[in-house]
Write a structure and sequence with these properties.
With 404 residues, this protein is mostly helical. It has two domains: 1-179, Up-down Bundle (Growth Hormone, Chain: A), CATH 1.20.1250.20; 206-389, Growth Hormone, Chain: A (Up-down Bundle). 81% of the residues lie in helices and 0% in strands. It contains 19 helices and no strands. Helix 1 (3-28) runs parallel beside helix 8 (127-155), helix 3 runs antiparallel to helix 17 (332-345) and helix 5 (71-90) packs antiparallel against helix 7. The chain is globular, with a radius of gyration of 21 Å. The N and C termini lie far apart (55 Å). Residues 185-205 have low confidence and may be disordered.
């Protein structure tokens, strides 16, 4: 990477890590908030659902804003708003204020992903590795969130955790507002002239040609998001129930750090090989360890769960890379907006589905149910590969049809 690309990746890594710290601070504080306000788990769970839907829904306007204003400006809005909302969460006097403030935090923090990923996809030439490093930063942020939040809560109070991440958000917003990120000319904002007009009929044909593959990638984001939300919600409890009652949940950090390695390897593979044949292979490799996560008990479960997380996150640079490949000219930001609405918004229903399995049976049943959902991503990836192979076949010459 040249110096400009390294600067982009440095700031985007910090932003992605912080976005996931903002996302997971509330789940880490659930028990303490319930005790403080005297509310039941169903109330805090409902608030978490609202946050998740807001986090996913704001991805769509973020994508359009990234195409119009540029990714950096959207990141300034995202973290400025998150700073204010995190402080309001920390000041909550009751569950109603808490729910409203977390709804606002979801809307502002959710602006990050389309803007951040479109900046990497367009500003870094080695896109696969760039997306891999971007994913690593997110995994590190996810792994750090419980440690930061619980540590500050133990030292002082759960509210301090939100004041702390609010301060980090304000600092990052200031840095992004005063830093110039050099990307290729015209790659950050959509042209005033309609892209189809500017590129002619060929651009329209290419956009139509990739319409179905793009829809399939969106479907993969929904399936992947359902597995993510269900697994990230119940993996701590699962490890506590079947590994160790006292600190089994702490091994979620180990699993998420393993996911960071998966992001790097997935990014490296996407630099060397075509994405369409690679995607079904990695999706298929994800299913067996996910099935075993619902079967194995004891310390071996930590290894199996880490293997599932490794393969799951190894696939992420592939899917995000395919969004860039199939997006129409000048619309990469909004394409990422739709994809992350699909993953974090619509895919958020995975938490409800997994919760239903837990209520009826246990966490083992939840992970077996998530395995069936994960199998759908393999089917989607396989169809995508078949379509790609058909496009690669040489078209018959125009005169061939007229020969005997």
């Amino acid at each position: 990477m040249n110096p400009d690309e390294r600067r982009i990746m440095t700031y985007i890594a910090m932003a992605h890590g912080l976005a996931h710290i903002l996302e997971l601070t509330y789940p880490a504080m659930l028990t303490r908030i319930e005790d403080d306000f005297g509310i039941r788990a169903v109330v805090t769970g409902g608030i978490a659902t609202m946050f998740g839907w807001a986090f996913g829904s704001s991805a769509i306007p973020a994508g359009f804003l990234a195409d119009r204003l540029g990714s950096r400006q959207v990141l300034v809005y995202a973290f400025s708003g998150s700073a204010v909302m995190a402080v309001l969460v920390g000041l909550s006097p009751n569950e109603w204020w808490l729910g409203a403030a977390l709804l606002g935090l979801g809307l502002t923090a959710g602006l990050y992903h389309p803007a951040g990923i479109s900046l990497v996809a367009q500003g870094v030439r080695q896109r696969g590795m760039g997306l891999g490093f971007h994913g690593v930063a997110g995994n590190v942020g996810q792994a750090m969130a419980p440690a930061i939040a619980i540590g500050l809560a133990v030292l002082v109070d759960w509210r301090l955790a939100f004041f702390f991440v609010g301060g980090l958000s304000a600092l990052l917003a200031l840095v992004m507002a005063t830093t110039r990120l050099n990307v290729r000319a015209g790659s950050e904002t959509v042209a005033v002239v309609d892209a189809a007009e500017e590129a002619g009929d060929q651009s329209t044909k290419e956009g139509n040609r990739f319409f179905v593959p793009l829809l399939l990638v969106y479907a993969a984001f929904i399936v992947s998001g359902m597995v993510y939300r269900g697994a990230i919600t119940y993996l701590p409890k699962h490890l506590e129930d079947f590994v160790n009652d006292d600190f089994g949940g702490a091994f979620v950090t180990v699993a998420l750090l393993t996911g960071a390695v998966g992001q790097l390897i997935g990014g490296g593979l996407s630099q060397r090989y075509r994405l369409e044949p690679l995607a079904p292979i990695i999706c298929l490799l994800t299913v067996p360890p996910l099935v075993l996560t619902g079967v194995v008990t004891g310390w071996a479960l930590v290894v199996i769960a880490s293997a599932f997380v490794f393969f799951y996150f190894a696939a992420q640079p592939l899917w995000t890379g395919l969004i860039a490949d199939y997006s129409p000219p000048g619309a990469i930001g909004r394409s990422y907006g739709f994809s992350f609405f699909a993953g974090f918004g619509l895919g958020g229903t995975g938490g409800v589905i997994a919760g239903a399995f837990v209520d009826i049976w246990d966490t083992q049943a939840a992970f077996l149910g998530l395995s069936a959902i994960m199998s759908l991503s393999f089917l989607i990836a396989t169809v995508l590969w078949v379509l790609a192979e058909r496009r690669r076949r040489p078209a018959p010459s125009e005169g061939a049809s007229g020969t005997a």
